[in-house]
Amino acid sequence: MFFERPKSGELAVLVHLELSAIDSPEDPREFEELALSAGADPVSFIFGQRATPDPKTFVGRGKLEEIHSAVKEHGAQLVIFDHILSPSQERNIERELHCRVLDRTGLILDIFAQRARTHEGKLQVELAQLRHMSTRLVRGWTHLERQKGGIGLRGPGETQLETDRRLLRARIDSIEKRLEKVRRQREQGRRARSRAEVATVSLVGYTNAGKSTLFNRLTDAGVYVKDQLFATLDPTMRRVELPNVGAMILADTVGFVSHLPHRLVEAFRATLEEASNASLLLHVVDAAAEDRLHLMEEVQEVLQEIGAGDLPQLLVYNKIDLLKDRGPGIDRDEQGVPRAVWLSAVSGEGCDLLVEAIAERLGEEMVTGYLVVAPQQGRLRAQLHEINAVRAERYLDNGDCELDLTLPRGDLERLLAPYKDSPTAPRWQVDKAADVR
After folding, report:
1. What residues are designated binding site for GTP?
2. What's residue 328's pLDDT?
């Protein structure tokens, strides 16, 4: 029911009001892109200004008549508001316009329903839609009377509205239980990666900033890429080998948008947890966007909301191929730590610099030196090879093996812990060992 799409675009009238009571108004260009991404065919774009929204119809009487005229003139089947409408406002506007009305939340939910590919993604979208729909059921059932009973069953009974609310609650509970199972599975995966000391790096950023293109460039994953909002909905993860660091997990996540509906953040908690538990966030920014600073602030707000605001970040200024006087490069802070990377995911310019910067940021706790292991400690030697920590090795005259290592300090301490009290404990040293012990 929730994933059936119309065969062609729907004729839509778009409505955008500038409200002086709102500090950060929506961008009308982004609103139009959202409508196009949903498959709408905009036939009219109506602008207006108000100090505060009208409590009954959001817009005033005159503006409502203007919208009604546009609907009749173009034969539109849909009116989309670039604002969040209350259920009563939505119902009152529909009564006046005699056509379907959709607010910003409903529009984003519709786009998400189209983009969902995995079972988990569809569950998350359906959960968000059901929560949104549960407040608007009265609109669809105002024409029904109370249900009738048979002989001996007559009475007030249960209204159709009450029946639907009960069924919705049951479905919501069922989906939440299934998503809780998904969350537990993801948590098990994160614990396994933590035990193996494999860092997770998550791509975050505003929608259509180029995250999936960059993900494909770094991993050859073949993730769906298109120049549209919310092209990526389902998270994708790939293992990437970094020079002098070892393996990391790179995660591509759903793009953010200004004033992301809160129920969407709640529904996609299982997906967004990949970002909130990352070792490093790659904040991908559209360097060619005129309002990139505002978009970066919007991303930071969502990161704070999901508990990822204080995680280490590396800015990635993408799309430098659209800039005239900017080439690839790394910006560093006063301590020389990479702070931002300028690149083009489409052409590949600067992507090698990003890999270098990630390796530096993740390699802050890396140690390099030589470990001398006895012949009976072959298991330790095999474990070091498994995590790609061995750069070179040689056998000494007495049969011991000298390993040239680069690995995280935590890995080294974890692997050497079982041998701490052994009389032939492996010897860690920065300088090269002698030929005999």
Report:
1. 205-212, 230-234, 252-255, 318-321
2. 92
